Amino acid sequence: MAVIESLSPLLAISCPFICVFLILLFRKRPNIRESCTMLASIMQFLIVFSMAPIIVAGNVIECPLFTIFTGLDFIFRVDAFGLIFAITSSFLWILVSSYSIGYMRSLHEHAQTRYYACFALAIFGAVGIALSKNLITMYFFYEALTISTYPLVAHNGLAEWGHKQEQSEQAEEARFAGRKYLAYLITSGWFFFVAIVLTFYLAGTTDFENGGILTVASASRMILMTLFALFMLGSMKAAWMPFHSWLPTAMAAPTPVSALLHAVAVVKAGVFVVVRIVCYIYGIELMGAIGLGVILVSIAAFTMIVASLMAIAQDNLKKRLAYSTISQLSYILFGVALLNTMGVQGAMLHIPFHGFMKITLFMCAGAIIVVTGKKNVSEMAGIGRTMPVTMTAFTVGALGMSGIPPVCGFISKWYLGLGTLEAHSLGLLAVLMISSLLDIVYFFPIIYTAFFGKPEGWTESGNKNENTKINEASIFMLVPLAMTAIFSIIFCLFPNTFYILDLVKLAVAGLGGGV
């Protein structure tokens, strides 16, 4: 394996950062402001994707910046696993940027300059996490992600610069969501920092290494288990139960923000960190030796089932999708906790695949809100007849979440199922199957209601009147949601699109140990 020094990681990180200044500079010229966002997102993806052939060839890319003190460097390193997350985040930023233009203009949202600037900073944080070589570098971007997404979560409750804050019930709900978001994730960041300090004390480094940097000789079993607990508390962005309630509350944010939280940046950063900790700090062998795999798989299994049950009870579509996210994120924790080849491969595949499927669902929910103003499942009878493209895309995302081909969720769940068999655990296979069945239970009533329910304006004989013409969202919103739905199918039929399967296999092959 060759280590290649390159500025490409720094350039990729710089795109959204520079974009923030351009957004602020052209705040009074919205067309240029939004063009800057689109251009920056496209440039970032091209830079990130240009590194894929180098990594697939078995190399890694490094970009050292500065040394804090001996053993602690601020440095970027592009490996196979990090590149999976970077490709996912940068590509979806392009589509969410287009979607945001249609959404924000359709609803005449306030403070759009702040919105786009914070969105760019969030991608800056997400891709920085993906390309970090060590825990110190990751921690900087992890906290930057928290801070930059607070104004997005609380957007509806924060005034535009120079204006008084609105005092409506919706505004207060958004401000409460923002405060709760910060309370959870700032606290989480403190636990993460303590865990990093303890790791450096035990190992003398915080670098991510295949097979981990900790050993049985590093400390007693109790200290290593305590350290893992600190890391898990530091990963509340993964929304594992019982530290999950910030996520449904954050649905007070505009829908593109919900898509960012659930599919592109925040929660993906949480599960990405957990996989980094398991595979590159502890290592598979150590996780198995001290019994941490059993603890993690128990947390994941509990969250998968309970969150799915809570999703069934939600009438609000965005909240149902939020509990679905909590459940689906734990599939990733579940897979890596199996501590075997198929399980880890399924976990890594589910990061990009879930991203494309979940962002499709949220963008569909936003399109429905913009066109009809409806937010509840019970209000959506027949909406598939008036918004056929939107609801077809929604159906694709729902099928994938349930693990039904030909959508990519089938591929990642297939590997997870093989992982349970490789672990010789029919009980865990049963958990996976029950959770997937519950996915069907809370998604399929939405699809049935949308396509077979009788919409407003339809007569008893089934004839529609003039008020039920096809009425889709703007092209800025419709194209992105259609594209993510199409890619969700493409990833099932051709899982190596964007080198994803090659990168996953390369990442798993490098872990060694129990894998």
Order of helices and strands: EHHHEEHHHHHHHHHHHHHHHHHH
Annotation, overall tally of beta strands: 3
Radius of gyration: 22 Å
Low-confidence segments: none
**Global mean pLDDT:** 93
- Number of discrete domains: 1
Counting copies of identical and different chains, the oligomeric state is single chain
Quote the beta fraction.
Answer: under 5%
Question: How many angstroms separate the termini?
Answer: 19 Å
Looking at the structure, what is the overall shape? globular
Range of helix content:
55-70%
Structural class: mainly alpha
Main sheet summary = 3 strands, mixed
Q: Going across the major beta sheet, what is the strand order?
A: 1-2-3
Number of helices: 21
